[in-house]
# Entry
Amino acid sequence: MTDTLRMLVAGGVVLGILVLLHEWGHFVVAKWCGVRVDVFSIGFGPRLWGVKRGDTDYRLSALPLGGYVRMAGDNPVEERTGQPYEFLSRPRWQRCLIAIAGPIMNILLTLAIFMGIFWLAGIPTPEYFRTAADVVAVPHDAPATGVQPGDRIVKLNGVSTPTWGDVQTQSESAKPGDTLALVALAQQTLVIRIADEGNFREHRGHVGAN
# Structure
């Protein structure tokens, strides 16, 4: 029961934030366009609590399943006075901006959340990407590069003590005809040229393409 209650509370908080920002988008753009906003409500149904500031009644309503912004003259079936502060009296482009402002706020919130996660935690990567580039084994059919099991790649294209993540980044960004200057512990510098076919041959202590 405790877990269920916790999930319900967490879901309510998340939904409340989404609704608040969504309706706030409508509200801000409506005010910017000169439309009078009569009600800014979180939830539907009877008013539980609120405060009125200027023309707007900011309220919490009984059913916390969404929210709404009620603007003057936004209901086409109601009688209009034609005042410039009414929603339907504003130019079409302004009404369009007011309508899409809510979804845009939700999109911006999503982007902000993902950017915050990447900034705080980084992009998830396998753990070995952050370890030293120790060579455990070399496939028997791999091109001859001079690298042997037990070697450690200590320098790659000027990057000292690279991790396996650095090695993958450098190798994936290499194009046919590019070279990779690789230094392995207790080995000479090996210059690897990327061939169109991905085949290599050893030549005078260096590695070159056919």
Notes: Confidence is low (pLDDT under 50) at residues 197-210. DSSP finds three helices and eight strands in the chain. The beta strands are 37-53, 56-71, 153-156, 159-160, 179-184, 189-193, 200-203, 206-209.
